[in-house]
Design a protein that fits this description.
Layout lengths: L6 H13 L4 H4 L3 H57 L1
Length: 88
């Protein structure tokens, strides 16, 4: 491959690519490969977002169950206190 850039220009281009997170492999990808890579990354991102939503829903459900347990425990304590007060 013939380079049309002098060494200083090549170094500047390399620094610019590194600043934007572009790897040498990405710079030499065909448009189809770039499309496929973007598609793969988008699918991975969607999967992570879906997993996070499921985790959040599961956590909310667990928090609601624990809250209900606490409420029922408080209600039981109140009932016991009423029974004790009635016996006094």
């Amino acid at each position: 491959m013939t380079s049309y850039l002098n060494p200083v220009q090549r170094a500047a281009a390399r620094q610019c690519a590194e600043a934007f997170g572009i790897t040498k492999q990405e710079a030499t990808m065909t448009p189809k490969q770039k499309y496929d890579e973007r598609r793969r990354l988008r699918i991975e991102n969607d999967l992570r977002a879906e997993q996070k939503r499921e985790f959040d829903f599961d956590r909310d459900d667990e928090m609601q169950r624990q809250f209900m347990r606490v409420l029922s425990a408080v209600e039981r304590i109140a009932e016991v206190m009423e029974l004790w007060a009635d016996k006094q």
